[in-house]
C-alpha cells in the first residue's frame, strides 16, 4: 500500500458534484478537487480530467480521492467525470467507447477550459477505460487538450482488448459483458439528483443490454472495432503522450506500439504490475508514480523543466526468473531503459524448431499436435489484477498436451525485450484451427515458468479483416506474435516454446479438434535479444509510493464467497474453471451507502468435445442508501454448436423485496470462422 500524505503545497476544496452541460442539454456529473488559490480568477490552474463509467459517487470514490487530492494539492484542478448514463450523469450508456462518449469528452474539455478557475489547459488521465478514451479524444484534437497520460489501455480495440485475442474469442468477452451488464442499470444517488432518480433508474434498466450480443456480430476486425482504435491514424494524436502498463496486464503490448508510431513527445513505462496505477499495486515494487505524474504535468502545462523528458523514451522492469506459482506479491528484477523504440540495440535471434524437439537445433521433417481440451485449464488469467491466483501453474502440466521444443542449457544470461515471434510452416487436417504459443523459462530442476504467450486463429493467418478457411493438407505459413515482455533467462536455464491447438478457457475452442503438422527446420522462434547497457545503472530511482488519504470506508466479510478453482470429473471428463468477480461488501459512511456484490464466471467443457464449451455468469449487486435498497441479479449462459453461438441472459431488479423489472434474452449468432 502507498504511504499516505496529508499535507500538500496547496490547500484543496472538494466540490462533490459539478454539472457539466453537453450541447444536447444532457448534464454529466463530475467531482472537482480545486486548489483554493484557484478560487481567485487571478490564479487559474491547469485541469486534469479522468473520464469513466465506473460511478464516481460510490464506485471509484475511495481510489479517486487518493489520486486527485494528491495532484490537486500540487496545483491542479482535478475533475472526475462520469460518462453519460452512468453514476449521476444523465442519459443512457449504449456501449463501449462510442462516438457519443468521445463527442461528450470534447465538449467537456471545452467547458472546463472556459471556467474561471482553469487557465485554458486540460490534460487527461485514465487507466483502462479512461486510458482508452484519453487517446480517442486526443485523436479528435480538442484545442484545450495539452497532454494524455494513458495507463493499461490500447491503441487497437480488436487486437489488444478483452474481446478477441489473435482472432480467437477471448474468455473475457462474455465475462466483461456480464460485468458491465451488472453495473449499467444501477441508479443515481437521490441525495444528488433528487426526485429524478427513479425516472433515471428506470431509463437505465430499460436500456440495459448484454453487449456480448453486439460484440459477437463483429467477429472480424471491421468498422465497429476500427472506431476508437487510434492505430487507424496515429498522426491524429499530436499532443504529448505518457503510456504506462504492467507486464502482468493484458494491455502492455500497446505501450511499445504507441512509442513506435506516435510522432509527438512521448514516454513509455512498464513495470511488473497488473491492471493498476503504479503507486497502488498488487505486484511490487510499487513506485512513486504520482510524483512522476506531477512532473509530467508541470513540464507540459506549467513550463517547468522537471528533467522528466531528458530521460530515455522507454523504461521497463526487466523481470528475473521466478518459480511457477499462482500468485506473486513481488517480482524481482531491475529497471532498464531504451533511448528510442524500436531500439536499434534490440536484435532478433533465430532459434529453429529442430528435430528431436530441440529449440535451436537442426534437421527437417514434421511433428504433429492435436491437444486435449484440458490444455489451458491451469493458465490463470492472461493479464488482470494480479491476485486471486491469476498466474499459471507449472507449465509442465499444459506441456503434456503440447508440442514442446527446448533449448540446450544457456551458458550465460540471455535477456529479451519486445515481442517474440513464432514463424510457423504448417498444415491442418481441419478447415478451422487455432494455435497457442507459450514461451517458458525452464529451471535446471525442470520447473517451468510461463514468460509470455500468443494466440492465433489460423483462419486469420493473413488478415483479421478477411478470414479464410484452411484447406486440409495444404502447407501454409503464419506468424504468431507473443505479448511483449522483458525477461532475463538465467545461465543454466533452458528456453522452451510450447505449441498447442487448444487453450481453454482463455480462447474458445475451434468447432473440431484439429491436428497441426509443423514443418521442422522451416519453423523458427525469433527472440528480441537485449544486450547489456551500462547506462541502466545510472537511471534515476523512483520515489516512494505515495497517495492522499482515501475517503472513509469499511469492508465487511462475505459469507461463502465464490472461489478461484479448477475441477475435473474423471468419469465424465467434464472440467470447470471458476473465476470470482467483484465480490465485496463496503460501507461508505460519508455518503450513507453500503454496497454488496458477488460475481462468478464459470467455464465448463468436456474433454474430447469442443462443442460442449459453456460459460456461465452470475452477478448480484445490492445498494443500500437512505430510505432505499435495490437489488440487481443477472445470470448468463453462452454455448455453441458447430455453426452458431448462443447467448442467454436473464435480469431481475428488486426494490426492497418487490420485483419491479424482469427480462430475458436468447440470441443465436452465426460463427464466422471462430
UniProtKB/TrEMBL annotation:
InterPro entries: AB_hydrolase_fold (IPR029058), CocE/Ser_esterase (IPR005674), Galactose-bd-like_sf (IPR008979), Xaa-Pro-like_dom (IPR000383), Xaa-Pro_dipept_C (IPR013736), Xaa-Pro_dipeptidyl-ppase/CocE (IPR050585). Pfam families: Peptidase_S15 (PF02129), PepX_C (PF08530). GO terms for molecular function: hydrolase activity. The keyword Hydrolase applies. Residues 294-547 form the Xaa-Pro dipeptidyl-peptidase C-terminal domain. It comes from the Bacteria. The keyword Nucleotide-binding does not apply. Keywords: Hydrolase. This is CocE/NonD family hydrolase. It comes from Cypionkella sinensis. The lineage of its organism: Bacteria, Pseudomonadati, Pseudomonadota, Alphaproteobacteria, Rhodobacterales.
Amino acid at each position: 500500500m502507498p504511504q499516505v500524505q496529508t499535507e500538500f503545497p496547496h490547500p484543496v476544496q472538494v466540490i462533490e458534484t459539478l454539472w457539466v452541460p453537453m450541447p444536447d442539454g444532457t448534464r454529466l456529473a463530475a467531482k472537482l478537487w480545486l486548489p483554493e488559490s484557484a478560487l481567485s480568477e487571478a490564479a487559474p490552474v491547469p485541469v486534469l480530467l479522468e473520464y469513466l463509467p465506473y460511478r464516481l459517487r460510490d464506485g471509484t470514490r475511495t481510489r479517486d480521492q487518493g489520486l486527485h487530492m494528491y495532484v490537486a494539492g500540487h496545483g491542479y484542478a482535478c475533475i472526475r467525470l462520469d460518462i453519460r448514463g452512468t453514476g449521476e450523469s444523465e442519459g443512457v450508456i449504449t456501449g463501449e467507447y462510442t462516438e457519443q462518449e468521445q463527442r461528450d469528452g470534447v465538449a467537456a474539455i471545452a467547458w472546463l477550459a472556459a471556467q474561471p478557475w482553469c487557465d485554458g489547459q486540460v490534460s487527461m488521465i485514465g487507466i483502462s477505460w479512461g486510458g482508452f478514451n484519453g487517446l480517442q479524444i486526443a485523436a479528435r484534437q480538442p484545442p484545450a487538450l495539452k497532454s494524455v497520460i494513458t495507463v493499461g489501455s490500447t491503441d487497437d480495440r480488436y487486437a489488444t482488448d478483452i474481446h478477441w485475442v489473435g482472432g480467437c474469442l477471448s474468455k473475457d468477452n462474455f465475462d466483461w459483458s456480464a460485468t458491465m451488464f451488472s453495473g449499467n442499470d444501477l441508479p443515481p444517488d437521490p441525495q444528488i439528483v433528487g426526485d429524478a432518480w427513479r425516472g433515471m433508474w428506470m431509463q437505465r434498466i430499460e436500456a440495459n443490454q448484454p453487449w456480448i450480443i453486439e460484440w459477437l456480430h463483429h467477429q472480424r476486425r471491421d468498422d465497429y472495432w476500427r472506431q476508437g482504435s487510434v492505430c487507424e491514424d496515429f498522426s491524429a494524436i499530436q499532443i504529448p503522450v505518457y503510456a504506462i502498463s504492467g507486464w502482468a496486464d493484458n494491455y502492455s503490448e500497446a505501450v511499445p506500439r504507441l512509442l513506435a508510431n506516435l510522432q509527438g513527445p512521448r514516454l513509455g513505462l512498464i513495470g511488473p504490475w497488473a491492471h493498476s496505477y503504479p503507486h497502488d499495486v498488487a505486484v511490487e515494487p510499487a513506485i512513486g508514480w504520482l510524483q512522476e505524474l506531477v512532473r509530467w504535468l508541470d513540464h507540459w502545462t506549467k513550463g517547468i523543466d522537471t528533467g522528466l523528458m531528458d530521460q530515455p523514451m522507454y523504461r521497463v522492469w526487466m523481470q528475473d526468473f521466478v518459480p511457477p506459482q499462482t500468485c506473486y506479491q513481488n517480482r524481482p528484477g531491475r529497471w532498464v531503459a531504451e533511448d528510442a523504440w524500436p531500439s536499434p540495440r534490440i536484435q532478433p535471434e533465430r532459434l529453429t524448431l529442430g528435430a528431436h524437439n530441440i529449440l535451436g537445433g537442426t534437421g527437417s521433417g514434421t511433428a504433429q499436435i492435436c491437444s486435449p481440451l484440458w490444455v489451458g485449464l491451469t493458465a490463470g488469467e492472461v493479464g488482470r489484477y494480479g491476485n486471486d491466483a491469476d498466474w499459471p501453474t507449472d507449465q509442465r502440466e499444459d506441456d503434456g498436451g503440447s508440442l514442446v521444443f527446448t533449448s540446450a542449457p544457456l551458458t550465460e544470461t540471455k535477456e529479451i525485450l519486445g515481442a517474440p515471434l513464432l514463424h510457423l510452416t504448417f498444415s491442418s487436417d481441419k478447415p478451422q484451427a487455432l494455435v497457442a504459443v507459450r514461451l517458458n523459462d525452464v529451471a535446471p530442476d525442470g520447473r517451468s515458468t510461463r514468460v509470455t504467450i500468443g494466440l492465433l486463429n489460423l483462419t486469420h493467418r493473413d488478415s483479421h479483416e478477411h478470414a479464410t478457411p484452411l484447406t486440409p493438407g495444404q502447407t501454409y505459413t503464419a506468424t504468431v506474435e507473443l505479448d511483449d515482455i522483458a525477461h532475463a533467462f538465467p545461465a543454466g536455464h533452458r528456453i522452451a516454446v510450447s505449441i498447442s491447438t487448444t487453450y481453454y478457457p482463455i480462447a474458445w475452442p475451434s468447432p473440431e479438434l484439429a491436428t497441426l503438422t509443423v514443418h521442422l527446420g522451416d519453423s523458427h522462434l525469433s527472440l528480441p535479444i537485449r544486450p547489456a547497457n551500462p547506462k541502466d545503472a545510472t537511471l534515476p530511482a523512483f520515489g516512494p509510493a505515495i497517495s492522499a488519504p482515501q475517503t472513509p470506508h469499511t469492508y465487511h466479510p462475505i459469507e461463502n464467497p465464490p472461489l478461484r478453482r479448477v475441477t475435473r470429473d474423471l468419469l465424465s471428463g467434464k472440467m470447470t474453471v471458476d473465476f470470482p468477480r467483484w465480490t465485496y461488501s463496503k460501507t461508505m459512511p460519508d455518503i450513507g451507502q453500503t454496497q454488496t456484490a458477488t460475481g462468478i464466471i464459470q467455464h465448463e467443457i468436456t474433454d474430447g468435445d469442443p462443442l460442449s464449451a459453456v460459460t456461465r455468469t452470475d452477478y448480484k449487486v445490492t445498494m443500500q442508501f437512505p430510505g432505499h435498497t435495490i437489488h440487481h441479479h443477472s445470470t448468463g449462459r453462452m454455448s455453441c454448436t458447430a455453426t452458431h453461438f448462443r447467448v442467454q441472459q436473464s435480469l431481475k431488479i428488486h426494490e426492497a423485496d418487490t420485483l419491479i423489472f424482469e427480462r430475458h434474452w436468447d440470441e443465436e449468432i452465426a460463427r464466422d470462422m471462430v
